[in-house]
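Appendix B: complex inputs.
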Amino acid sequence: MKFLVLVVATFFLFSCVQNSQKPEADAIQNINTQSNAEIQFDKEKVDFGIIPQDTLVTALYQIKNTGSDTLKITDIQPDCSCTSFYVSKFKIAPNDTALVQLNINTFHKHGNIEQYTVLVTNTKKKFYSLKNTAIVN
Amino acid sequence: MKKMLKYSMKPVVKFSVLAASICFYSCKSEKKSDYSTAKNKSEKLIKFNDVAIDSIQLDSINTSYVGEIYIKDNSLYFLDSRFCFLHEFQKDGSIVHSYIGQGSGKNELPVKNVTFFSFLPNGGSFFMGTGYDCYIFNEKFERINDYAVNWRPTHTYEELLDKPDPSLPEMYSLVYGGKVRAHGDDLIFPIVSQHQAYNPTMKTYAAEARIFASMSLKNGYIKDIYGGFPPFFSKNFDFMVFGFPIFDIDQKNNYKVSFGADSLIYEIDDNMNVKKSFGFQGRNMKTEFKNTSDMELFNSNYHEQSKLNGHYTFLEFFENKDLLFRGYSKGIGEASDGLQIYKDNVLIADIDVPRGFRMSGIIDNEVYSNAFIDQSKNAIKIYKFKLTN
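Resulting structure:
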């Protein structure tokens, strides 16, 4: 009988208080910010102007390693699930170039949109932001 | 034997019912606002009609240009939401130091986007990522705790589809874009239910929903959900599109609460008894709101309506000066936003401010705005003006 009491009490207690979970933040790779890699963008912003809803638009950014060490892109972080990306290479030799392609889906979007995608690299500045803007009709 | 069993089960049944009742009610919120007790006393004694607005430019920093200004100990801080740096500036805009930053180091922030931030009463800082992941830093910007918000769910989403219950914490989520307030050991923030079976596109929402949650800063547990909408919103369904509260809390746990589309400001005690209401509508506000009955369209309708119509955008209360600031947008075709200043609940000024103006705080009797960012010029500007006596 005592067991039954305990079971009932425990059930109701735990139905109210669940385990406190640790956050599952994505692991961000440790990067060497002491390298002599340097990055140069052909542009850091693309304005698509007025575009229709439910379409896919693409922004292309060319990046060049103007430093003396290999440039490493260690992470790409769009701020919206509507943005996917493609990078032609994640390790770029000195004087070499690579392309970063950002695909923005305007499904369910409306009005002014401003989206920022962060590039994490092994340069001294470490973080860069690419901005895409549009007016979705 | 049968009889004995029957009698001996009785205390068990009694205890079970008691335990169930205690636990059931400890999970549910009964603390709703009672607006019937509110006395309205709106007074106007205008002391000035405009202010000389000055601006400062922050020193150049490596930034994502997504972020906001916060004030602590007479210093300006720009929180870069994407790079996760907290840059400290003197009040003239010169850089002092940069803290934290995105990364997996022990004193870095392992998030890709900071969605909520607040300085804490003990000098520390609170950050929240996009997945309800929370991080506490001490006054030396050392990371000392992390946890996830725990809404203490007792029902599945499917169960709530059949029987939505506005008194259950798991019905709600944070109002993104809203402001969180650290108060004592708790974090207070506005909440909204976006549940398929219960949300602001339903006519019963304004009468039943809770509007605030308090979360323990020690472990992320939602301690309570409470408060409610004034009757204004039950009578004006279309105004619910701007029904979210803006608020501040004084040292005696009194809340000053306003809502996007309601011209009144409510003073509410810790038990959610509405003590009084006061306030005037802002100048030249367009208020032809249109709500939607489709939750999928709620956000896009909100953005569309916010361009067309005016609404109240922020509320800040400075207890030591007994000054309350409430900002508002006016709607389409207007060149400026408005800012109301109340002293001891009396409106003493209603002035024009630049569009998009929010208030970050006061330093040496000067009001400082949020960040105005111009990425094409690599510039972050802050407006400020002096408070006249």
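Chain B has three domains: 34-56+229-389, 64-148, 150-195+204-227.
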